[in-house]
Specification:
This protein is α+β, with helices and mostly antiparallel strands. Helices cover 27% and strands 32% of the residues. The protein has 10 helices and 28 strands.
């Protein structure tokens, strides 16, 4: 009988990769159907049916209206009805959401792995930003299910990179992993003891990455074009707009190796060449750098509060190659970033290792560098990137606003079990509305992100005691399982955060 195979997927904003542990116990990056190790995270519907990766790239300039990239940035974004926001329409009139976009990329990587390994694959670990909220995580699982996987685990990207790094080095140390990709920034502090990886602090920006630098350079090009008597406009010519954006990206990447590059702005049959130096780049992209530095400083301040000394800063993700990123990191943390790990594939390789641990035999030997580990010895502990709260009114009736009462504090070690009691607002109530929000303790709930709202039956009574019990578990994958029950009625309502694609009702109750 053929053994089941498991894979890891780094679902990136600009590139995605797929990996596995081969029969020799070594992590291997699997080539895609085009023979490449990295797949552009781009999907085109130009010919009616979805085309993924390298084959979709030409359509960015030919048919940009039905091509999607950077879809990962839209994961978890929903309308007022709780349904994911459509990002474009296919030629057949179908609404394409970030879930459907991601499902196509995952499906392509799944087919690539199945062709390479010669068998059907149902088990996967998919990495996601540590700063993804609960809706974005559930949407990632929904995309994986749509792609055909039946067993799915999520793993935070910095934790995945640290897992691979820790196993490769075999040391005991406290490190900071900065995952700076094409569209997201994650910064996580981890305690590493060879086969045990434990996250303690996480921060980040789900909408900050290399794409922001591209957009800043494009804005500069637009200004230069206007000064030369023509206009670069997405409304007038979307294909030309994207062509200029792509050339902005190439200029950014070339500055990693050169002091200056020539930048060409063209539209309406006109063009102007501009010299772009590193100094000009820093001026143009100052606001992007300020956001990056701000995230780093928040993590550094938390380290100081806890009196934690770090030994190393690890940079992963494509944007970590930008010429000035190591210097910005050194200015904040006071440490030269380490260059002894693979910035492109460390996350994907960590996913393959974790897939073997989660789904494979516990006595499987995994070889990383010069070290050999049993799967059963490899452990991970993550933290909650955001505080999870219950919205509730205060006891005095003259304040009709709802405030947050925390049930899972920010940076809590996962898995985490919680329990908190509340009272009915009025005598004689026969139900209460429970709102689960993402925000800060004591914050106005209307200023927070609503995750779920559901009704719970209670027994009408003349007592206002704390008899409504909210308890549950926050899993290692960052998903919530909640039970709410009135002690007098004893009819619990169970809610899990598993998203059902195409339905406005995202709860299972």
């Amino acid at each position: 009988m053929k053994k089941e195979k498991f894979i890891g997927i780094d679902l990136g904003t600009t590139f995605s990769e797929v990996t596995h542990i081969n029969d020799a116990g070594i992590v291997e990056v699997i080539p895609n159907l085009d023979g490449d190790l990295k797949t552009p995270s781009v999907v085109s519907w130009a010919n009616g049916k979805p085309v993924v990766g390298k084959a979709a790239l030409p359509d960015l300039s030919l048919r940009p209206d039905i091509v999607m990239q950077f879809g990962k940035r839209q994961m978890g974004k929903v309308g007022e009805n709780g349904i994911p926001i459509p990002l474009l329409k296919s030629p057949a009139g179908e609404d394409i959401t970030a879930i459907y976009f991601s499902a196509e990329i995952i499906s392509y990587l799944k087919k690539s792995a199945e062709q390479y390994l010669g068998c059907e694959i149902k088990y996967v670990v998919i990495t996601n930003p540590a700063y993804f909220d609960e809706i974005a995580r559930s949407h990632t699982i929904a995309a994986a299910k749509k792609a055909g996987f039946t067993k799915i685990k999520l793993l935070d990207e910095p934790v995945s990179a640290a897992l691979y790094y820790g196993l490769e080095k075999g040391n005991k140390e406290i490190i900071v992993v900065i995952d700076f990709g094409g569209g997201t920034l994650d910064i996580t502090v981890l305690n590493i003891d060879a086969s045990i990886t434990k996250a303690t602090i996480t921060d980040g920006d789900a909408e900050l990455g290399g794409g922001n630098y591209d957009e800043s350079i494009l804005q500069f090009k637009c200004g230069q074009a206007k000064a030369s008597g023509f206009e670069i406009s997405a409304e007038k010519d979307l294909a030309t707009f994207y062509s200029n954006l792509d050339k902005a990206r190439l200029a950014k990447e070339m500055l990693a190796r050169r002091e200056e590059v020539m930048l060409v702005a063209e539209a309406e049959g006109k063009r102007v060449a501009i010299k772009l130096t590193r100094k000009m780049f820093l001026d143009i992209c100052r606001s992007v750098d300020e956001r990056f530095i701000g995230c780093c400083k928040r993590v550094f301040e938390k380290l100081q509060e806890k009196n934690v000394q770090i030994s190393k800063v690890i940079l992963v993700g494509g944007s970590s190659r930008l010429f000035h990123v190591p210097e910005m990191v050194k200015d904040v943390f006071g440490i030269e970033p380490s260059k002894d790990t693979d910035p492109d594939f460390a996350i994907a390789k960590g996913a393959a290792i974790w897939a073997q641990v989660c789904f494979g035999d516990s006595d499987t030997a995994i070889k990383i560098g010069e070290h050999i580990y049993l799967a059963s010895d490899i452990k991970i502990q993550s933290v909650a990137a955001h505080a999870i709260c219950v919205a509730a009114r205060k006891t005095h009736k003259n304040d009709d606003k709802e405030y947050n009462y925390v049930i899972v504090p920010e940076n809590t070690q996962l898995p985490h079990e919680f329990e908190r009691k509340f009272a009915p607002l009025y005598f004689g109530q026969n139900s209460v509305s429970v709102k689960i929000v993402q925000g800060k303790d004591g914050q106005l709930s209307e200023e927070s992100t609503l995750l779920r709202e559901f009704s719970v039956p209670i027994r009408p009574s003349d007592t206002d005691s704390d008899r409504i019990n909210v308890k549950g578990r926050y899993t290692e994958e960052g998903l919530l399982e909640i039970t709410v029950c009135d002690a007098l009625l004893n009819k619990p309502v169970n809610v899990t955060f598993n998203y059902n694609p195409g339905s406005a009702e995202n709860n299972q109750i």
